[in-house]
Design brief:
The complex is a heterodimer of chains A (110) and B (119). Chain A has strands spanning 3-7, 10-14, 19-26, 30-38, 44-49, 56-58, 61-66, 71-76, 85-93, 98-100, 104-109. In chain A, strands 2, 4, 5, 9, 10 and 11 form a six-stranded mixed sheet that branches. A five-stranded antiparallel sheet of chain A has the order 1-3-8-7-6, with no helix packed on it. Helix content of chain A is 0%, strand content 60%. Chain A is mainly β. Chain A contains no helices and eleven strands. With 119 residues, chain B is mainly beta. Chain B contains no helices and eleven strands. Chain B has strands spanning 4-7, 10-13, 19-25, 32-38, 44-51, 57-58, 67-73, 76-81, 90-97, 109-110, 114-118. In chain B, a hairpin with a 2-residue loop joins strand 7 and strand 8 (76-81). The radius of gyration of chain B is 14 Å and the shape is globular. The mean pLDDT of chain B is 89. The chains are: A mainly beta (110), B mainly beta (119). The interface between A and B is medium-sized, with 22 and 23 residues.
């Protein structure tokens, strides 16, 4: 059975800290891994990763995929209170369906 | 990026009534739409995949007769929760992707979600 596991489940940090969120997966016929940020409502897209070892970066956020070890990390540097959210990892495998992980709930304290 | 809307954003209904939720892609044609359900502090669970002009594909454990999906046009999919009960209360989110743009490697765009409360 395909599955996506995220860790930690929740995290509390102070502004300015750097955090690393993890996503590991076991899927057949892997196609891509995606990271989303979910605040009150629907998830907003952050990154899509398809190739190993190529870092994607957007401002203070960056992500990288390791297809050999079957995991991805999402880094957030110099965290701000506005980064508080649930971060979701999803994997597509063989079809267009997303398999979502449980999410990591990040809270950044001022 | 592409915009997906959902309507209504919030609905409260009595047990036994049916509720229809609309999902629209506003600036692209969505050949495929997805319906998710999210319980508090849990992740998104895929309920069904909706393909324009054909029957929806439901995930295991999702009752087809209870959650009716119609994808009659390239910009609109609807989810009808029939004879709703309190246990159907949840956050329902749709997403859409344009298979004509980028093949496999384009992301899904999510609607803002609909919070359903069944009394």
């Amino acid at each position: 059975e395909d599955k996506v596991v995220q860790s930690p489940l929740s995290l509390v940090v102070h502004e300015g800290d750097t955090v690393t969120l993890n996503c590991s997966y076991e899927v057949t016929n892997f196609r891509s891994l995606l990271w989303y940020k979910q605040e009150k409502k629907a998830p907003t897209f952050l990154f899509m990763l398809t190739s190993s070892g190529i870092e994607k970066k957007s401002g203070r956020l960056s992500s990288i995929l390791d297809k050999k070890e079957l995991f991805s990390i999402l880094n957030i540097t110099a965290t701000q209170t506005g980064d508080s959210a649930v971060y979701l990892c999803a994997v597509t495998s063989g079809t267009y369906k997303y398999i979502f992980g449980t999410g990591t709930r990040l809270k950044v304290l001022a | 990026g592409a915009v997906v809307s959902q309507h209504p954003s919030r609905v409260i209904c009595k047990s036994g009534t049916s509720v229809k939720i609309e999902c629209r892609s506003l600036d692209f044609q969505a050949t495929t739409m997805f319906w998710y359900r999210q319980f508090p502090k849990q992740s998104l669970m895929l309920m069904a995949t909706s393909n324009e002009g054909s029957k929806a594909t439901y995930e295991q454990g999702v009752e087809k007769d209870k959650f009716l999906i119609n994808h009659a046009s390239l910009t609109l999919s609807t989810l009808t929760v029939t004879s709703a009960h309190p246990e159907d209360s949840s956050f329902y989110i749709c997403s859409a992707r344009d298979m004509l743009a980028g093949g496999f490697y384009n992301e899904q765009f999510f609607g803002p979600g609909t919070r359903l409360t069944v009394l």
